[in-house]
Amino acid sequence: MADNRRPLFAGNWKMNLTLDEAVALADGLKNRIGRLRMVDLAITPSFPYVATIAKRLAGERIAVGAQDIHPGDFGAFTGSVSGVQLRSAGASFVLVGHSERRHVFGDTDAVVAEKLQSALAHTLDAVLCIGETLDERDGGDTFAVCERQLAEALARVNETELSRITLAYEPVWAIGTGRTATPAQAQEVHRIVREWIEHRYSAGAAGRLRILYGGSVKPDNVEDLMAGPDVDGALVGGASLDAEKFSRIATYGSQGSA
Ligand code: PGA
């Protein structure tokens, strides 16, 4: 973590929790870390809970976002939710290109790019996720895959728009598997991603960009991961469903709030 960037910890709740459970989790976070000053915090509840949770956390320092976005605005797209709708429901940001969207639902790089454009058009901030599969890592293609995903997603994004984007490096083999990338593996990819951004945009843009690590982040490994100078926070799945665990992650593994 570099001094000039504020850490960001985002909890991706995925397709978990009933509405009552989601509200209870939001309240638990509000009590524990709702006023945390040293880091930025964000959560992505399931679509039907976004409006309720956004109201519940109004005035707190926890941003409420969504896990996906449809590129269009309105129309005959049964089952999809658009940026206009998310904005009107109180979301301030969206995840784009999460590996489950890419690998389970078939979002291509081109679709990810369209979703990112739509988020930006509706003044939603975006967390753009990239990352290689185990086969790609074993084949020595980690950097090529990440660079391709970045190049495609950011092809139509200018430097001003980039300031509204956070990147999340999530090796697919580390998501929900309990198998975390080592701090050195995470830092290596983050450094290369930042260099790519510097080359594509500018040193200033690269210096300001936050790059989160995601994949089995827990209270007991977050501190080591955050030691990497290019690791600016975490996108947390499983451990974000527990208010106490996510609060400990947001305080770098410590027990109390800071
Ligand atoms: P995990 O999920 O923390 O459960 O590995 C991370 C993610 O998918 O964002």
Descriptive overview:
This protein is α/β, with parallel strands linked by helices and 258 residues long. The chain has one domain (8-256): Alpha-Beta Barrel (TIM Barrel). The chain contains twelve helices and eight strands. It has an eight-stranded parallel barrel, surrounded by five helices. Helix 11 (222-226) links the parallel strand 7 and strand 8 (233-236). Bound molecules: 2-phosphoglycolic acid (PGA). 2-phosphoglycolic acid is lined by residues 12, 170, 175-176, 214-217, 235-239.
Topology:
Elements: E1 8-12, H1 19-33, E2 40-44, H2 50-56, E3 62-66, H3 83-88, E4 93-96, H4 99-103, H5 109-121, E5 125-130, H6 134-138, H7 142-153, H8 159-162, E6 165-169, H9 183-200, H10 203-208, E7 211-214, H11 222-226, E8 233-236, H12 243-250
Parallel strand pairs: 1-2, 1-8, 2-3, 3-4, 4-5, 5-6, 6-7, 7-8
Helix pairs in contact: 1-12, 5-7, 7-9
The chain binds 2-phosphoglycolic acid (PGA).
2-phosphoglycolic acid binds next to strand 8.
Instruction: Assign the CATH architecture.
Output: Alpha-Beta Barrel
Radius of gyration, in angstroms, nearest whole number:
17 Å
Give, in order, the helices and strands. EHEHEHEHHEHHHEHHEHEH
Helix content: 40-55%
Query: How many strand units?
Result: 8
* Domains, number: 1
What global shape is seen? globular
| Average pLDDT rating | 95
Number of helices: 12
CATH topology: TIM Barrel
Q: Can you say what the CATH homologous superfamily is? A: Aldolase class I
Output the CATH class name.
Answer: Alpha Beta
